[in-house]
Amino acid sequence: MMVLKAQEHTKPLQVSFFCTNWGMSETWEAFCKRVKAAGFDGVETWLPAEDSERKEMEAALEKYGLELILLSAGNGNTFDAYLENFTANLKRAVAQRPRLVNCHTGKDYFTFAQNEALIDAATAISKESGVEVVHETHRGRFSFAAHITKSYLEGLPDLSLALDISHWCNVHESMLGDQQEAVELALSRTRHIHARIGHPQGPQVNDPRAPEWKDVVQQHLQWWDRVVEHQQQQGNTTLTITSEFGPPTYMPVLPYTRQPVADQWSINKYMFEQLKARYTQ
């Protein structure tokens, strides 16, 4: 956990770093051992469906002193079915007492009122449980686009975001220079960051260490810096960041062999180390 020095009239901001288990092919024991050795504070994952795996996860997290962020979503062929499933899944997630729950909320084709009902349900569950719930900016969800998310943020004062702005770069086929007002509002309402680098043609560059992505990486860093500034100005004392570069085929692959063009683990570790250094004073 990294602690940023307080600026004048603000409290210190503690930044905690999490690692995605997306693409994990090993046991929870082996994975958590590797995550701890790399210096992460915790893991972000979906709640395992099977009790046996959930217990394995819990044991490994406890053994290595790692915190937990859970992802949650909904499913259903109708809105009512989706709402019921979304609510049940979120209740199961908060029952685990994670650091926070990051929701994939709603659908891009749901009406504003329908998505608002989902957000309101999540807010009620969060307040009742005391577990923070945030909503990820993500393709296919209510928050799939910057200008659409802006309308929700303006209408729902309790709405907080998990910022994965890589999706918006892809959706808008730009680095969002023409949507600065919407982006700035989102940055001011962000409580959790997914540190993945997107670009106008996709939600994940092949390797952020490559020099051809320098300007794109710099733009993401500037966005994340603004999130940190907003958190300090608002007097918040904690912020969480997850390195979330994905595995093949989210990670680009070579034709025919389907071999990934870069190593997911080393990229996520690199991104964590860069941000740890950046936000440590």
Overview of this protein structure:
43% of the residues lie in helices and 16% in strands. It contains nine helices and nine strands. Helix 1 runs parallel beside helix 2, helix 3 runs parallel beside helix 4 and helix 5 packs across helix 7.
Q: Which whole number gives the mean pLDDT?
A: 96
Which stretches of 5+ consecutive residues score pLDDT under 50? none
Strand content: 15-25%
Largest sheet: 8 strands, parallel, barrel
Class from helix and strand fractions: alpha/beta
The number of helices is 9
Fraction of residues in helices?
A: 40-55%
Order of helices and strands: EEHEHEHEHEHEHHEHEH
Number of strands: 9
Shape: globular
What Rg is obtained from the alpha carbons, in whole angstroms? Answer: 18 Å
In which order are the strands of the major sheet placed? Answer: 2-3-4-5-6-7-8-9
Gap from first CA to last CA: 12 Å
Q: How would you name the oligomeric state of the polypeptide chains in this document? A: single chain
Fold topology:
Blueprint: E1 2-4, E2 13-20, H1 28-38, E3 42-46, H2 51-63, E4 67-72, H3 79-95, E5 100-103, H4 112-129, E6 132-136, H5 146-155, E7 161-163, H6 166-172, H7 180-188, E8 190-195, H8 214-233, E9 238-243, H9 264-278
Parallel strand pairs: 2-3, 2-9, 3-4, 4-5, 5-6, 6-7, 7-8, 8-9
Antiparallel strand pairs: 1-2
Helix pairs in contact: 1-2, 3-4, 5-7
